[in-house]
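tool=predict chain=A
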Amino acid sequence: MFKKILVPTDGSDLSNRAVRAAIEFAKDHGSAVVGLSVAQTHPYESFTLISRREDFSLLSESLRQRARDYVHIIEDLAEKACIPCQVHTVDSPQPWKAIVDAAAEHACDCIFMASHGRGGLNRILLGNQTHKVLVHGNVPVIIFR
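tool=predict ok
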């Protein structure tokens, strides 16, 4: 049914469980996996918290390294399950947009992602990346809760 599944991760426990479920889903359906982690940058916040350019560079590199670590988990699990896999990391202040863009760029026909289930005030203040992917995406989204 799905030939190529985008699997975004933020490294959280729930996201890691979703990754495992996505790998099983891909194995059951003969699909390939594209792993994605977004190094979420906060341009305005960073300038107020960091006084020197060197500190900003260190923070940015730390975020990128964490993103690389997260996608390597996907890569390792896919390899063990004998699932074709490629992984990518991107920098973006809007993870939902990076996810939607990656699905289009890599010709994915499905997105399989976790939802943290935020509601109420947390959803308003923090946003809901999964909801934004559902609203703005052009492919089916499988949500793991």
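The beta strands are 4-9, 32-40, 85-92, 110-114, 141-144. The chain is about 55% helix and 20% strand.
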